[in-house]
Structures are given as C-alpha cells and as structure tokens.
Amino acid sequence: MALTFLKVSGLLILSNLFMTYAWYGHLRTGTDKPLFWVILMSWGVAFFEYMIMVPANRIGYAGGLELGQLKVMQEVITLLVFVPFSLLLMDEKWRWDYLWAFFCIVGAVFFVFRNKW
User: What is the C-alpha separation between 4 and 23, in angstroms, rounded?
Assistant: First the structure.
C-alpha cells in the first residue's frame, strides 16, 4: 500500500503541474490572445494532465485506495502545487488563508484515511 501511495502521489503531483498551468497559466501569458485560442491551448495542456491523472487514479484504486481517498489526495496536492504557482509564477502575495485552508484539508485527510492507518 505504501508503494501505491507513493506512485499515486508522484503522478498526481505531475498531473497537477499541468492542470494548474492549463487552468491559470493563460492569465499571465495569454491575456493578449483571443479566448478561443487560449481555450485550445489550455485543452492541449490538459491533455497531458489527463494522460497522467487517469493512470494515477487507476493505480490507486487497484492498489486499495478508496475513491474518497483519491479525491482528498488530489485536493491536498492541488493546494500544494497551486500556492507556490500563484506566489512564484503569478506574483500573488502570501495570504495566511492559504495556511488555514491547508489545515482544513489536513483534517479531511485524517478523516478519509483514519481507517487505513
């Protein structure tokens, strides 16, 4: 189970890098382009996200992770990828709300995994 967890976590981190850029990267690099072009570009990037996300979920589910556990893992990883992305690439300012949101998600992790550990 530990190896499955590590594989899935690694794949989810990689897929989230693509997802975050597909959803938000155009706000920095595509504001001067027509919306239709930006949508096509985002879909192109999201294709690679799906090429990683779908196998991650299949590996996790086949390896004994429950659907809710996979979803909560995804949300934790999304926040862990999004915050540095917004701070470093989008020049957003740090907000303590990011930390409090993280603690709320840690609570979700506790509840969905407490019967597994």
Answer: 28
Q: Which two tokens stand for residue 100?
A: 């409090």
Residue 57: name the closest of 117, 1, 7, 113 by CA: 7
pLDDT of residue 42: 93
Spell out the residues 6+ positions from residue 19 whose beta carbon is closer than 8 angstroms to its own: 46, 49, 53, 78
pLDDT in tens, 65-97: 999 999 999 999 998 999 999 999 999 999 999
For 1-19, what is each residue's pLDDT tens digit? 789 999 999 999 999 999 9
- pTM of the full predicted structure? 0.85
Between the alpha carbon of residue 42 and those of residues 2, 26, 50, 91, the distances in Å are: 33, 8, 12, 20
Q: Which residue is it, tokens 């603690």?
A: 103
Residue 65 CA to residue 89 CA, distance in Å, equals 33
Nearest to 74 by CA among 11, 2, 26: 11
